[in-house]
Amino acid sequence: MTEPRNGGRILVDALLTHGVDIAFGVPGESYLAVLDALHDAPISFITNRQEGGAAFMADAYGKMTGKPGICFVTRGPGATNASIGVHTAFQDSTPMILFIGQVGNDFVEREAFQEIDYRRMFGQMAKWVAQIDRADRIPEYIARAFQTATSGRPGPVVLALPEDMLSATAQTADARPYRPVQAAPSAAQIETVRDMLSAAKRPVVILGGGGWDPSACDDIRRFAESNQLPVACAFRFQDLLDNQHPHYIGDVGIGISPKLAARIKASDLILAIGPRLGEMTTGGYTLIDAPSPAQRLVHVHSGAEELGKVYQAELMINSGMPQIAAALAAMPAVDATPWHGTVAEARAEYDAWQAEPPIFKNADVPLNLWQVVKTLQAELPADTILTNGAGNFATWAHRFWRYGGFRTQLAPTSGAMGYGVPAAVGASVIAQHHGRPRTVLNFAGDGDFLMNGQELATAVQYRAGVLFIVFNNGMYGTIRMHQEREYPARESATRLHNPDFAALARAYGAHGAAVDTTEEFGSALREALSHIASSGMPALIELRYDGNLITPNATLETIRKAAQQRTVA
To answer: Could you report the per-residue pLDDT of 11-22, keeping only the tens digit for each?
Structure first.
């Protein structure tokens, strides 16, 4: 039996048992015993400026490593701020554990200072929510938290830590390290997949969801190559196949290529490996009919509860991604003659979809955002990590950036604004901590940036050399676009008065520059990259452009006119 320890020490020792090396958070008096135990532990605690940023960084850790991202916040306001990261991790199937300081058990159920019942608060947005009331049970709860976060469909766990429990002393043994559990496909199921593929004439693969790793991505690539299959990736999971690979045909999400959408609708077999087949990936449930698809559908998911939830697939396989990918890679290839040439056709459509949009070809536009993306792609390494939050600006990343393979994209399927800045800082810190520094690029809209832009201070403090690109059009662009579509020429509540973002970056201690023209961007980029390389510090480039350029396909003016004509008709 170990020596008596207080709850804070027992908890930190448990984290070490399970391999934790980094934690993110905002300190609070409700978990001082944990902070004290961390003082002597080989765990790097990254101090954030707001709990939402901390939770987003923990989500980024979970995405990058496959291990639970660890986040500590204080009770009440700290927990409510962090809830956005928990919701994002749940919808993204990201392993994460949020620890929340809680009022002492002697104050509970009195609406004490900052008291919330977290089991009720987080019930729908986490895999498991609990409160540890006894210090001697901490190893048990922590082991279960890691097991739950990583087994089956990965996701977040929330544990509340009463203050008096953390300071109490107990004599208890540590648990063993966790071991994730995943289902695997049966030989009969793989044989059925092969039979269905052999009978197909227009098959397509859609990849997505959590639980992937580099070997699983390699296996699924080999499966696609051996069977000559076109591969699309679900909304914000575009990095599961190198976008330069000839079998990659585009993303299935918001702003999908019309030709890719038509190809999926016309397919006779969809192999959906990993995605939830939610609203974004199915085009509002229009690409695939619910509940009975017109196409033959094989749906593979790590969570059994997801299978059959919306779509009655002909074959449903409960499996982890490494398990299904290895089985498919080992499956004897089928005769791909019936769809010979499909991959090349679909790839050509993808390449055409990435061409320069007409809004730049047919107008005198000072700042060509398509050219900005192409310049960045040419100057940065293929394994650059690109992060973004939510907004119309993200279209430039989703449609025109070519992701270099596994974990080069960090973005929220939940559509959470404010994700990209902290995710980028977290990604840079994580990569450095693990001895594998990476180039990290963040795309942020002006509204998106200001939701968590304070984490630029965290970037400077921990020397996270992120390149931030701020798309400044002076509005909440997505909402303004919808306003013009539904209520033309009646703008309301979407206009923004912004700071000088370049000056703001310099105030934080980063490099800052602003550009108004395409010609200015190249030199500004080279200067920013030189600053990052020489100092290891972040840099920000503000893109000041006409808000009328709301999407690659249409301007606000054309959207407004179309809506007005529709109203008249």
So the answer is: 999 999 999 999
